[in-house]
Structure formats: C-alpha cells, structure tokens
Amino acid sequence: MKDSDMDIQAVMAEIGAKAKAAAGTLAYASAERKHAALIGAADAVWANRAEIIAANDKDMIFGADKGLSPAMMDRLKLDEERIRAVVDGLRAVAEQPDPVGELLEEWDMASGLHIARVRTPLGVIGVIFESRPNVTADAGALCLKAGNAAILRPGSEAFNSAQAIHACMIQGLAQANLPTDAIQIIPTRDRAAVGEMLTMTDTVDVIVPRGGKGLVGLVQSEARVPVFAHLEGIVHIYVDRDADVDKTRKVIVNAKTRRTGICGAVECLLIDRAFLDAHGAPFLEDLIAAGVEVRGDSPLHSINGVIESTPQDWGHEYLDMIVAAKTVDGLDGAMAHIRQYGSNHTDAIMTENAATAARFLNELDSAILMHNASTQFADGGEFGMGAEIGIATGKLHARGPVGAKQLTSFKYQVTGDGTIRG
Known about the structure:
The chain is α/β, with parallel strands linked by helices. The protein has helices at about 10-25, 30-45, 50-65, 70-75, 80-95, 135-145, 160-175, 190-195, 215-220, 245-255, 275-280, 280-290, 330-340, 355-365; strands at about 105-110, 115-120, 125-130, 150-155, 185, 205-210, 235-240, 265-270, 295, 305-310, 320-330, 345-350, 370, 390, 400, 410-415.
C-alpha cells in the first residue's frame, strides 16, 4: 500500500490495539520463552544477513540522495561486522537475568501485613529513532526482555534496513510461541504516523525518542504520552593541570575519531591554562594529523592547523570530524562552561588528582561522568546492559543508558491473613 492511500489514524489505532493485547500476554510470559525468542531472532538476523545488507544498500542510496553527512551515512551503514554486533547484542540481552518479577525490597508491618515491591513491565513502549537501523533490534530486544510490547518508528533513511531486521525479530517471536504483535514496526515513512503515536494515550504507555535535538524537541512539545528524553550528546572532556599527557592524548583521539557519529563522541575539549602552559596541547596536533578540524579560542591559535572558533561552536553537536577547543581557568572554569553549554549527557575529566576528579564527578549533574576514560564508552553495551535504547538525559524514572531494567516500573504486593485495619 502506498503512503498516500494509507489511513494513518486507522493504521496506528490498529497497531496500538494489537500492542496493548500483546503486552498483556508478555507481562506474564516466562523468562524461558523470552530468551528463546531473542536467540531465535539472533539466529534469523545472521541467517538473513545478505538480505539485510541488500535492504541497507537501498537505504544508503536514499541517504546519499537526501544529502546526509558522512557521519550520518556511517550511522546508517550496515555490513557483516555490524550485523555480527547486532547478533551479539541480541544474545547478550537474551542471557541477562529477567527483570520482571524481581524482588526489589520487602518488609513486615506491625499490622500483620507483608509488603513486597517487585519489578513489573511498563506496558507498550513507542520508540522513535533516526538513521541507525540496529536500534530496531536493540529496542525490540530490550522491550521484550522487560515484558513490554514495542512500536518502532525508524527514520525514513533506515526504513528498508529496519523492516528487514524487524522480520527477523518476528521470526524469533513466532518460534517461541509469543505474540508477533509484541514488536511492531510502523509501515510508512509518513511523519503523520509519529504525530498520531504521540497522542495514543489509551494504548501507548511511554515514548522513547532517540535522535537529534529536533526530533526530541518535537516529541517533547507534542506528546501527550509520557516521554523518556534522550537529548543530543554535547560531550566535553576537561584536561586538568594534573592530567597525564600520554593518557590524555590516547583518550582524546579515541573519544573523537573512533566513531564520530555516535552520541558519546567528544564535541568540545576544555583545557586548563596551567596544563597548556606546562605541556602545550599535543592532543590537538594528534587530532589535526588524524583529519579532525579543530576550532579553538585565541590561546590555541599558535598551534598549526587550529582555526578560529566562534560562539556557535560552544554547545554544538557536530557528529563529524570537527571538535571545539577552549582554554579555561581550572576546574571551576570547566564546570561553569559545561553547566552553560552541556546537554547533561556525558562529560569526562583527565586528571591524576583524585580530589579534583572527585569534585568533577560529584558536582556536575550529567547522566554519565567519566574520569580518565574515553567518552565512547557511553553505551549500554559497555555498561554490561547488552544493548540500550539510548542515553536518557532527564531525571525522572530512567537516566543514562536505558537497558531492560530501566524499561520496568514496580508494583506493591501486599499479603495479610484476614488482616483488617482498626
């Protein structure tokens, strides 16, 4: 069916109703059946990797015609190595303990009641994401593991790849005798479907937007369904006066160049003037040699290859081979800059001074704070979660990498013995 012939409201209402029914079954599905579904999906992804890559080729042509940046094209691309990573992610989620029904705490009251707080699924989760087709598997797997039904809406660029991966997820569900409506994908690129999902309060329990500032802002402004905010990654690394030069050079090059298109890539370097005076900024020379465009403030202009920064470079997510660099007056100057321009995603400090590191970790309020480590580790898989739906930058319910446990709520189970209240 062509998008122009589709009744978006009717299609979305049907998807929502099917998801709600599936969520009712998943809420009490056994850990073994969910495990089997995820292993089956992993096997199907690997078995169908040629078809997935062929679908991705269509998306790559679509993305190129649309004029996507090299970094966005890198996000979009699938090859056998990345499909192996998708398979590994599915298997990792499958092998994690089932969070549903986990006893969080319990206690007895003088009244004779025994009270237990246990994990329970959220219900139906709508996931809206841009460009990265692997999110189809990550989001579907995590929602399923936590006993939730998922409605997935990939970006138009990833439409064909996401459909191909989704077919594998359905195969896993069917083999495990779980409802195939547990993981649905919106069958249209029409943006009206997103607007419709944001108002489906009767069937959707939470929306997770994973993408750029424009997408997240749109969802937050228009959604009537609760939202887990996953804002842009304006990631900083502060180089303290007591930083180790060799460690710093290694970490910064990795944090910028390993993959520039992910939200954990560093976008701004803050350099203590005392470090600059003592050691220069050899990591900027390393970045320039690696092909990174460095936009620095005036104290850095003497370094060959550094171009003049503008005020617009602070608080900017490049997702490209570009980095901003600014000199600051010590830790307080760095933290002031991060508070003004950061996005509460991930920020790091390079220092051998334990007291300085402790202040940075304790006084800043980003979802992830790192000490002497590459910000490319800002990833649920690297946190032992198997995969993630994204990095939540809000403060309610979930924060940081959102894995299966973060996609649950809890309920109280209260037991008495004919107990009455006086």
